[in-house]
Amino acid sequence: MAEPVVRIPDAKVALSTASVYPESTATAFEIAGRLGYDGVEVMVWTDPVSQDIEALRRLSDYHRVPILAIHAPCLLITQRVWSTDPWTKLQRARSAAERLGASTVVVHPPFRWQRQYARDFVTGIWRMADETDVRFAVENMYPWRYRDREVLAYAPDWDVTKDDYRHFTVDLSHTATARSDAMSMVERMGDRLGHIHLADGNGSAKDEHLVPGRGNQPCAELLERLAGSSFDGHVVIEVNTRRAMSSAEREADLAEALAFTRLHLASAPASGAGSPSASASSAGSASGTASGSASAETRPPQPRVSHGRPRIRRP
Fold it and tell me: Who contacts 303 (Cβ-Cβ below 8 Å, separation ≥6)?
C-alpha cells in the first residue's frame, strides 16, 4: 500500500484559556470544542472557575474537551491566587493536573524579588518532578524594557536554558520580546523541550502574543521541525485577542491560529523523516501530491488557505 504523503504528528493542539480574555474560562472550553481544538491549557488566575477543580472537570466533561496542561498562577496579577507561597502554588497546580488528567504544569522562573524561592527554584523543580508523572515545563521569559533601560526581573534567569531543568516550555512571543533567536533556544533545549506556547511577535517591549503568522517569529519553521521529530508534548495557542471588536472576531482569530498550526504540523515523509531536520517543504505541495498517492480512506484532513485566512477542510 502506498505510504501517505502527509503525516500528522502525535502532538495535540490546545487552546490556552488566556486566549479568550476578557471572556471567561468557561468560554474558552466552549470555543475550543466548537473549533476542534484537541484540548485546553487552563491558565489559573483571577477567574474563580480557573481555580476550581470540580468546575473545570464539569466544563471538560460537558464540552468533551480534555484539559492537557495547567499553567500555574505565576503572573503579577495572580500573586495571591491559591496562596502567597510560590511552592504551595506549584503543589496545587500539580494536584490539579493529576486530578484532571493533564500531563504538564507550566511554570515561570521566579521574580527576582522572590529571593528564597529563586535560590531554591532549580533543585525544587527537580524534587517536585521526581514525585509525579506530571511534567514541570519551565517557560522562557524576557527582560523588562522601558525606553533604553533593561530590567532583569526573573531569577535565576529569564533564559531558562542557562539552568538545568528536566522539561522546558518555549514561548515564541517571549523570544520576540527578548529579541532572542527562537530556533537557537529550541536547539539548546533539545529533547527536554516538552511544551510549546505558540504565538507571534515583532520584538516590541510589550509581550504581544500575536496570532501565529502575524509577526516575525519562526512559528512555521518550529512547527515543521516538530513534525519531523519525535516531539511528544503539546502545542498551545496562547494569543492576545483583547483587541477583537466582537466575540465573532475573537473566534475567527482563534480559528486562524488553529488552522495555521495544523497546516505547518503536516509534514511530507522523506529520507531521514523522523529526524528534527525533516520537515515539510510546503503544505501546498503536500496537499497536491496526496491525492495521487493516498486513498481517501487513509488520507488525513488537508489544511488549505482560502481568502487569505487558513482554514481546515474536514473530510
Answer: 259, 262, 263, 266, 283, 287, 310, 311, 312, 313
Distance from chain centroid for Cα 177: 16
What is the amino acid identity at position 7?
R
Phi and psi torsions of 96, nearest 5°: -60, -45
Neighbours of 33 (CB within 10 A): 18
287 Cβ partners below 8 Å, 6+ apart?
6, 302, 303, 304
Distance CA 26, CA 47 (A): 10
DSSP-derived 3-state class of residue 216 = coil
Q: State the Cα angle at 46 between 210 and 200, rounded to 5°.
A: 10
Nearest Cα residue to 140 out of 225, 228, 201:
201
Beta bridge partners of 15: 40, 237
Cell of 53: 477543580
For 275, phi then psi, to 5°, come to -90, 155
Per-10-residue mean pLDDT for the chain, 315 residues long?
Answer: 60 96 97 98 97 98 98 92 95 98 98 96 97 97 87 94 97 97 97 97 93 97 92 96 96 98 78 41 38 36 38 39
CB 8, CB 266: distance < 8 Å: yes
Q: Which residues have CB under 8 Å from 297's CB, separation 6+?
A: none
Classify burial at 121, counting beta carbons within 10 Å of its beta carbon; exposed 0-12, middle 13-18, buried 19 or more: buried
129 phi and psi angles, rounded to 5 deg:
-65, -30
Cell numbers 515543521: residue: 224
The predicted pLDDT at position 148 comes to: 78
Cα(49)–Cα(21) distance, integer angstroms? 14
Count Cβ neighbours within 10 Å for each residue of 60-90 and write b for 16 or more, e otherwise: beebebbbbbbbbbbeeebeebbeeebeebb
